[in-house]
Specification:
heterodimer; A: alpha/beta; 30% strand; globular; B: alpha/beta; UDP-N-acetylmuramoyl-L-alanine:D-glutamate ligase; Protein-Tyrosine Phosphatase, Chain A; 2 domains; nine-stranded mixed sheet; six-stranded mixed sheet; 31% helix; 20% strand
Chain lengths: 227, 465
């Protein structure tokens, strides 16, 4: 069973090396496909269990969109066919209609979902989100200068609203962490949905860290737990 | 493109601001404080465009960049005082607008007129946007740029753009030629470049987790590193478009008992400020600026004699056979922490390593982002000579996860719930006890180092008796 990291040297910002690290340990190094810029995504032509892409710079967003735009329909069909995909950080932005950069203008995105992303470099927003995906508890960080307008099929509900989109087996959210580390219950769900029920590496430590963070939220910002 | 800066006339608000700032500064000094932030804060709250109204010293020198700002600024200030400059300097680390304003107040006469001729300003990269718009530096050292402080600075592309938009046209740059990111900023500005050659003992390519320059910034091809010192620092070229490092004006060729620097075809010798290559970069940056200001090698070398990286940043105590080493590596800064780990690993013999992070108020918050752990090369601690790793603080559980993912066996980890008692958790059997700490854990680190030295000596005395 293979995991594909899309452009990992370019999309490992804001802690996403941690996601790569965890997935590599789960799938085994021999089963990791690292697609390098400017290669075409491998999941479009071969069997890949899970596709992962993390956060990137705004310039990288444009470079990757140039690569992915010709594959727009194939990506749409792949999602419809049930391909497991996890996008975190601003890789979510690529899935909307366009990304509007302040002072630069709009760049067309993959137009798979009816939302637009607006960036404003000096309007940076940092916080933490405790949320639920169904019954599954999740914790992630917000660290972004973007806002979204439009509609996304909901992913994580929280006291701060919905974060990200969930469609079939596509999960995409601007939340960071690395999310698969700060949300071990979700990571277990994701792997179980792929038929990997073996548990997470260092699962006990991951759950202790999750519970400790939740305790700190309860002590310092209990309203975040009111969903 | 940065605009030309015009001085604004002073008004009653300005005079009120400077009087209030001086009063506050005086009170803080009487109470024994350093007073690096509050006088500036008071002045700016009463007169937001204070910097545009106050008298500008004849010579404004600034230092920015991810790592090495404080050390470079301190070395430069200490050496320039020896060279006879009457200068003000935001030496206590407040490098945002308030700290810079305090330093400028110190450089001005009582009512804000010209007084001291030179000011040295350590400037936070992000704060450069609001500082340089009112106060253009004559010379600006840019030490390097790496990803760090993600909540504020996002990523290198973001912070590079901030500097690109902020640095005035008139500012002469002193840049690090080994950093193909920061040395390419503001390409139309006058610039001088410094570089450190590959030194004896340095690997051709140091493995590292992160690379902030994965593609050529001009043509987006894969870059070729002829020598990678760490991360994206080194000698690099693009095989497609030919982009390469700047030719340095000041090139460190060797660090033996002195720093040997090639300048215009001649080797000049200067005292070193420390043992690490980061110390060499910082000293070379300061030397380069003083040379650009017209001082000759002899007078600079004399001025730099005895100037070392300040003790609060690192200290080594020998307790019998055991070396107890302490070094600051700022939290949220994966390169600084990785460099700290490399420094520790160079010590010969077995080691216990104490990681003092998650101690300060912000890192104890429920919302403290620990993403930087995953960009830090904690894998280095899997070295067999590291026998114990002691962790503490509010982020202890997160750090444990990171260390396990780095391949560190759980039995090497000791978790200490009470940071104040961390010394009790340390095995004294090692050749070295190494404390790596964040800025906010400085006093805890100093205290722990001292307790450990006492414990080692007491144990030694018991064994001898």
């Amino acid at each position: 069973m293979k995991v594909e990291f899309l452009y990992p040297k370019l999309t490992n910002l804001l802690g996403e090396n941690g996601s790569l690290n965890l997935f590599a340990e789960i799938f085994g190094q021999d089963n990791v496909v690292r697609t390098c810029y400017p290669e075409r995504p491998r999941f479009l032509s071969e069997e890949i269990a899970l596709v992962f892409m993390g956060a990137m710079t705004e310039h990288t967003q444009k470079l990757i969109l140039e690569l992915l735009l010709p594959c727009q329909n194939e990506i749409r069909n792949s999602i419809a066919a049930g391909q497991h995909i996890l996008f975190t950080g601003n890789s979510l932005d690529l899935l909307g209609e366009e990304i509007v950069y302040e002072h630069v203008g709009a760049v067309p995105a993959l137009n798979l979902y009816p939302f637009k992303t607006y960036t404003n470099r000096y309007d940076r927003y940092n916080d933490l989100v405790y949320g639920l995906f169904g019954e599954i508890e999740m914790i992630g960080f917000i660290s972004q200068f973007t806002r979204y307008e439009g509609e996304m099929p909901g992913f994580i509900s929280s006291a701060r609203g919905n974060f990200g989109l969930h469609d079939n087996n596509l999960f995409a959210t601007s939340l960071l962490g690395p999310l698969v580390i700060t949300s071990p219950h979700f990571s277990k769900y994701l792997l179980a949905s792929l038929g990997l029920d073996t548990g997470l590496p260092h699962e006990e430590a991951l759950l202790i860290a999750f519970n400790e963070r939740k305790r700190q939220i309860k002590d310092q910002a209990p309203k975040l737990l009111d969903i | 493109m940065a605009k030309e800066i015009k001085k604004i006339k002073r008004n009653p608000r300005f005079y009120l601001a400077i009087a209030a700032a001086r009063l506050i500064g005086g009170i803080i000094q009487l109470l024994g404080g350093k007073g690096s932030h509050w006088p500036g804060k008071v002045a700016l709250s009463l007169c937001p465009d204070f910097l545009a109204r106050v008298a500008r010293p004849e010579l404004v020198l600034a230092i920015t960049g991810t790592n090495g700002k404080t050390t470079t600024a301190n070395l430069l200030a200490d050496s320039m005082k020896e060279l006879g400059y009457d200068l003000a300097h935001n030496s206590y680390g407040s490098n945002i607008k308030e700290g810079v304003t305090t330093a400028i107040i110190q450089s001005a006469s009582f009512w804000g007129g010209p007084n001291i001729s030179c000011v040295i300003l350590e400037v936070d990269e992000r704060a450069s946007r609001i500082i340089f718009s009112e106060l253009a530096p004559d010379y600006l050292i840019i030490t390097n740029l790496f990803r760090e402080s993600y909540a504020r600075n996002a990523h290198v592309e973001f912070i590079s753009k901030v500097l690109e938009d902020s640095i005035p046209d008139s500012t002469t740059l002193i840049v690090n030629a080994d950093d193909l990111i920061s040395s390419r900023l503001r390409q139309n500005n006058m610039r001088y470049a410094f570089s450190v050659d590959r030194l004896p003992g340095e690997e051709e390519e140091l493995p590292c987790l992160i690379d902030d320059l994965p593609l050529c910034p001009v043509c987006r091809s894969k870059l070729v590193f002829d020598f990678r010192r760490y991360n994206h620092l080194g000698k690099v070229h693009c095989p497609v478009c030919g982009l390469m490092n700047l030719t340095p004006d000041f090139s460190l060729k060797a660090h033996d008992d002195m720093l040997r620097v090639l300048v215009k075809g001649e080797i000049e010798s200067y005292p070193a400020a420390g043992e690490t290559v980061q110390d060499d970069y910082n000293a070379l940056a300061a030397i380069s600026l003083m040379r650009v200001l017209g001082h000759d090698a002899g007078e600079i070398a004399e001025a730099m004699t005895g100037k070392q990286v300040i003790a609060s940043r690192k200290e080594m105590i020998q307790a019998g056979e055991v070396t107890i080493f302490r070094t600051l590596a700022k939290g949220s800064n994966p390169i600084a922490v990785t460099r700290g780990l490399h420094t520790i690993l160079r010590l010969p013999g077995t080691k216990a390593v104490l990681l003092l992070y998650g101690i300060g108020k912000s890192s104890s918050s429920y919302s403290d982002m620990t993403a930087w752990y995953y960009d830090t090369d904690f894998e280095l601690l899997a070295d067999p000579e590291v026998r114990q790793i002691v962790i503490t603080g509010a982020r202890m559980a997160d750090l444990k996860v990171r260390l396990l993912l780095a391949g560190i066996p759980e039995e090497k980890l000791t978790l200490c719930q009470d940071s104040a008692k961390i010394a009790e958790a340390v095995s004294l059997e090692q050749d070295n006890i190494c404390i790596l700490h964040e800025l906010y854990a400085e006093s805890l680190a100093e205290k722990t180092q001292s307790i450990l030295a006492d414990k080692v000596m007491k144990e030694r005395a018991i064994n001898e008796s």
